[in-house]
Amino acid sequence: MSRIRILVLTSSTGGGHDARAQAFAEWCFQLYRHEVDVRIEQMLEESSGFYRGGVNFYNWIQRRSPWLHKAFYTVVEGLSLINRRTVTFGRLYYERVLRAYRPHLVFSVHDCLNRGYFQLARKLLGPRNVRCATYCGEFSGGWGYSWNWVEPTVDLYFSRTATASDFAVKLGLPAGKARVRGYLMAPHTYLEVFTPEERRRYRVKKLNLKGDRFTVFLATGANGANNHFELLPALVPHADRVQAIVVCGRNHQAYNELVHWRAQHPEFTCFIDSFSDVMHLLMQASDTIVTRGGTTTCAKALHFKCPIIFNAFAGIMPQERLTVKFFRNGGAAEMVQNAAQFRALIDRWMADFSLYQRLHANFLRLRYEEDPTVLIDELVGLAQDAAGVKLTRLPFPPPNGNSRSP
To answer: What is the reported pLDDT for 294?
Structure first.
């Protein structure tokens, strides 16, 4: 039987929150095996029809009309008042989970699952029996950084950057509870790292690409929203120097149409996939990635040294603005609002490659190396404190665990 229990609160508004929840669970098993039991709950969707509708509407906006999220975001901010001291919508479901599971740690990776949720957990379980923590994935502060992230009674609050951490303190987080702890990616991504030669070989043998061509990664979220058919024509005129990696998420129609497009353009080299679980490898095989401002994708791109071209087609959602601002303020990313701007950017880079090299150098200045186990140990440490036990941790990387590629 597991010695400590950790309840992770998440929701599928986009894919980043769930990705961090799953990465945390994988880390706990990697380092503590069966001594730590992690239960992940899609708390918004599962607890309330009202919230479920909100999540579905959010994802529709993300796919179809990002500009609408400005109004939606303002409405969601009202939850900071509704849940100021306890949970309102979905309370009965959350109470059932707490009573049945009795977690030693409630760990939130979503902005709408902090305020009220921590207070209710302490009320039902007793303040000595449970600890509470938040991991916020935002890159910077300002409009778009939700008040809902910050619950001042939290035991520890983890931010991705010092800039975002400072803003959380500005919103009322006690400074002594703030920590800056990087990427929160799955363990295997820290083991599967290419050397330059492995990168070239992966392009050739796994992706059927050229080993030395400038490689543009056209990415998308899990829901498959994309502008691939508007972006690809800008690359074709440079087919002798440029190639592409294209993923479609769970958009099967886009995948089928892209396969047909590739057959009609034999002069252009590209790799096409649907939903990919090796994004970290595809980023390492790329020279730049075109993506929206999703925090998880951009954090991986930063870690794997793949400069970003932000896709601002149809506008930028408020949370995405925080990511765009972080990179653009450092002169470390480009942004395109339409196909003409993308074409002009690629044309400039191909005419004067030093422009890309300057961007790449600025991008690397924003990186920092981290020990990914520190965050996990601090979180598990909170749970151990509540449970009154001391666990034995396994080493990382594990013996013979330094393989670079699958």
So the answer is: 86
Main-chain phi, psi angles of 24, to 5 degrees: -60, -45
3-class SS letters over 272-317: EECCCCCHHHHHHCCCEEEECCCHHHHHHHHHCCCCEEEECCCCCC
Q: Are 250 and 223 in contact (CB under 8 A)?
A: yes
For the chain, the maximum distance between any two Cα atoms, rounded to a whole number of angstroms, is 66
Structure confidence at residue 246 (pLDDT): 96
Q: 6, 384 in Cβ contact below 8 A?
A: no
CATH of 191-365, one of 3.30.450.20, 3.40.50.2000, 1.10.3730.10, 1.10.10.60: 3.40.50.2000
What are the residues whose beta carbons fall under 8 Å from the beta carbon of 92, sequence distance 6 or more? Answer: 47
How many Å is the Cα radius of gyration of the chain?
22
68 confidence band (pLDDT: 50, 70, 90): low
Cα four-point dihedral sign 255, 259, 260, 266: positive
| Distance from C-alpha of 157 to C-alpha of 137, rounded to nearest angstrom | 11
Q: In this structure, how many other beta carbons lie within 10 angstroms of the beta carbon of residue 219?
A: 27
Averaged over 331-348, what is the pLDDT? Answer: 96
Tell me which amino acid residue 136 is.
Answer: C
Query: Residue 370 in 3-state DSSP?
Result: coil
Would you say 38 and 8 are in contact if contact means Cβ atoms under 8 Å apart? Answer: yes
Residue range 4-187+372-387, CATH number: 3.40.50
